[in-house]
Specification:
The chain is an all-alpha fold. It has four helices and no strands. The longest helix is centred in the N-terminal third of the chain and has 16 residues. About 0% of the residues are buried.
Length: about 130
């Protein structure tokens, strides 16, 4: 018993074959095995390893917590005893941020070290080596 395809099926097959030959449809290619490389040399392709290791993204900053809110609850505000104990601590042991409570967002004072920080950021950018994109 022979199986014959219909006229329309033949036309569809011819259409698909023509599309593959013209490059309109690309057949599935077998997936290549992942390429591994040595990180610390010993590999002959040093330019490829340099290209892969050229950019290291900076670490993401930690998101602010409840203690850094402008209208935080009373449990996060240090008491007078804790504030007095801060004066007895070494500078290395002091907390980086002492929370304060403000009535509104507009009443928060400006950052006191803003000029110094922006100067340091500009200095860091200036002192970085320039990379040429070839």
């Amino acid at each position: 018993m022979e199986v014959h395809s219909s006229k329309w099926e033949n036309k569809m097959v011819v259409k698909l074959v023509r599309a593959i030959h013209e490059g309109w449809i690309k057949p599935n290619k077998p997936k290549e095995a992942p390429c591994f490389h040595l990180l610390w040399g010993g590999d002959s392709s040093t330019t490829e390893s340099n290209r892969l290791l050229a950019y290291i993204p900076p670490p993401k900053p930690k998101l602010p917590g409840h203690g850094e809110s402008y209208n935080l609850s009373l449990e996060y505000i240090p008491t007078q005893e804790e504030m007095n104990s801060y004066h007895l601590m070494y500078e290395e042991d002091l907390p980086k941020f002492i929370p304060k409570r403000f009535s509104s967002f507009r009443s928060i004072p400006a950052y006191e070290n803003a000029v110094e920080d922006s100067f340091q950021n500009c200095l860091d950018l200036y002192s970085q080596e320039c990379e040429r994109n070839l």
